[in-house]
Amino acid sequence: MIRSRAPVRISLGGGGTDISPYKDEHGGIVLSTTIDRYTYCTVKKSDVSIYQSQFARAAKRFLNRRGKVSIMHFSEAPAGSGLGGSSTLMVAILKALGEYHNVKLSLHELAEAAYHIERDLLGMKGGWQDQFAAAYGGWNLMEFSRKHTKIVRLNIAEDTLRELLASLILVDLGKSHFSPDLIERQIASFKRPEVLANLERMKDITRQMVVRILAGDVSELGSLLTQEWDLKKTLDKKISNATIDGFHAGMLKRGAVGGKLLGAGNWGHMVFISDISKREGLLKYVESTGFHSVPFKFDSQGVVAWAV
């Protein structure tokens, strides 16, 4: 029996620039970190093949190895959370199944295979960042082009990581988003000059985020989060809604330095940078709205597998 675990991610900047055809023609750049919320997969020998999902069945077909297996999985951040749960699941399944069949894939190959299965075999729309985040883990700057994906591991000072954990607030909005139509419209919008201009601004902000983090300037990161979110909302009118906008404004009024919605848009999770002196009040405000704060720590391992 082989079990695997892959972490979900918080995408801080550049989400949307990793989607083809934009990234193929203009290049994409994404800043993300993985957290200790995981998708687990278990693969074991079975008298009849058991596939819990279409992801499991597609992964088995992709690896093209004989033998009946049971593939079961569960996630602490399911699809629609805005945390990259679907792609994290595919990475976990591929890792466990590859280990079971003794198929050796590098982290890069694993992420690319997960992307191929989701996008090409299953026809699911989306970008490239989630598979690489789940595979590599940690704080990464990801650069995408037509032919290459470059993963740059950020060497962040321990004091800055502690300050980030003390400042970041992750909020579960209580509703899942389902984004295929949003992504379809965003792809169609890549032809509009104003959208292309805003995507370029988002990439510039993402680069500024990296500079601020490496300099230990967590407060300025909050301001950049809001700037990025304001630009992201211009890509499609359904990325946000009145409830999300009102909650964002309420958090800023009560001491959040900045924040944004995670994922493709329209529900899921939000992340904020708080003024630490006002963190307690912010957490009380979150609960008063009916939403929920989610405690977390950073994950630096990425996908792992072990024998049981």
Question: Strands, helices and their partners?
Answer:
Elements: E1 2-13, H1 22-26, E2 28-45, E3 50-51, H2 54-63, E4 69-75, H3 85-100, H4 107-121, H5 129-136, E5 140-144, E6 149-153, H6 158-167, E7 168-172, H7 180-189, H8 193-214, H9 218-232, H10 242-253, E8 256-261, E9 269-274, H11 279-288, E10 292-293, E11 298-299, E12 304-307
Parallel strand pairs: 3-4
Antiparallel strand pairs: 1-2, 1-12, 2-4, 2-5, 2-11, 5-6, 7-9, 7-10, 8-9
Structural class: alpha+beta
- The helix content is 40-55%
Mean pLDDT: 94
Globular, elongated, flat, extended or rod-shaped: what is the shape? globular
Counting DSSP H or I runs of 4 or more residues, the number of helices is 11
Taking all Cα atoms into account, the compactness measure Rg is: 19 Å
**Biggest beta sheet summary:** 8 strands, mixed
Low-pLDDT runs: none
